[in-house]
Amino acid sequence: MRVQKTELAEKLHKMKGIVPKKTTIPALQGILVQDGFLIASNTEMTVKVKLEGAENEYFIIPERAFDLISNLPDGEVMISVTGKNTITIQADKIKNTYQTMDPELFPLGAAWEEGSEWKIQAEVLLNSMKRVSYAVSAQGVNAIMSSVCLQAAGGKLHFVGSDGHVLAWDQVDYEGDFELLVPKNTVDRLRSLGIAGEIQMKYHQTGAVFLTEGFEIYTRLIDGKYFKYQSMFKKLPLHTVVSRTALLDAMIRARMCAEEKCAVRFDLEGNVLSLSMRGKLTDYHETLELQEPLTEALAIKFDARLVAETLKTFDCDKVRISFGGPKMPMIVEACDSEYKALILPVAVK
């Protein structure tokens, strides 16, 4: 095949994160070229990217060839099958031959089953996924807690993620009725591919596919029912408004002064938020102004890392923070959207 080096290198770069480092299927440690597509898979997720000039081709580009391709001079690159399980890459005066794998051993999975489908703009889908995926641990206590929940109901599409310590919930207008649990690894890869335009999504009980003009992304879905997250966002009696950037900067500074784990005490009274952290090597204090007075004083502790990571996912200048008491979670709400998050406190001695 003959392709432009810039296009090939850019698409390989986007896809190489899907190629598994360790696998019992050696053919997966490369990218399959087949019928006009580059194809990468890790058994949980398969990505197909269109590539001009790759029609009627069938071979595997081994992972060790990726760096060479990215460092070739701009211009045309020719890749050809030159023997049994060998390919040759040529560009200008550069030529190298690689041992590769039999493309017949590259597993593509069963043919796609017919299922339900819906459409959404990539910007909307990826922005909401980005907001909530930070709250999901890739090594969650169970498979459901390692997923992002996409739930369509009541004229809204809800995006939810949680690791048991923090819970993030975003929602956008959407007419439909379904619930899908998408693995966090799939969500992270979707966000890294640079997808744009309209996404058509098809799904059945065990899998889903995201289709765009240039991409096909297949993923397994996690079996199970997500917990009733909406009931956790109750209206709390104590609430105020604070500058998001001021509170975020304060959490970052507090973490800089901590040895390891950083539990920051929040003392809220009237229009003042006093932040403090005391350890063997530090005694940190900072005061912020609240933009709405609290009706009663409150002392509560939070993990500064969780608060900082949560605030980074908001875009607005101000956030509303609500409390129910010293042992209850803090709810953080955007002032310009329906995005909100819940953070569990640290026990105050």
Provide a brief overview of the structure:
It contains six helices and 24 strands.
What does it look like?
With 349 residues, this protein is an alpha+beta fold. The chain contains six helices and 24 strands. The strands form four sheets. Strands 5-2-3-4-16-15-14-9 form an eight-stranded antiparallel β-sheet. It has an eight-stranded antiparallel β-sheet with strand order 13-10-11-12-24-23-22-17. Helix 3 crosses helix 4 and helix 5 runs antiparallel to helix 6. The mean pLDDT is 93.
Fold topology:
Elements: E1 2-4, H1 5-15, E2 30-34, E3 37-41, E4 45-50, E5 58-62, H2 66-70, E6 76-83, E7 86-91, E8 94-99, E9 116-121, H3 122-133, E10 147-153, E11 156-162, E12 166-173, E13 178-183, H4 184-192, E14 198-203, E15 207-211, E16 215-220, E17 238-243, H5 244-257, E18 263-269, E19 272-278, E20 283-289, E21 298-303, H6 304-312, E22 318-323, E23 330-334, E24 340-343
Antiparallel strand pairs: 1-6, 2-3, 2-5, 3-4, 4-16, 6-7, 7-8, 9-14, 10-11, 10-13, 11-12, 12-24, 14-15, 15-16, 17-22, 18-19, 18-21, 19-20, 22-23, 23-24
Helix pairs in contact: 3-4, 5-6
- The share of residues in helices is 10-25%
Strand content: 35-45%
Structural class per helix/strand content?
A: alpha+beta
Give the topology string: H per helix, E per strand.
EHEEEEHEEEEHEEEEHEEEEHEEEEHEEE
Spatial strand sequence of the major β-sheet: 5-2-3-4-16-15-14-9
Output the keywords.
single chain, 349 residues, alpha+beta, DNA Polymerase III, Chain A, domain 2, 3 domains, 8-stranded antiparallel beta sheet, 24 strands, elongated
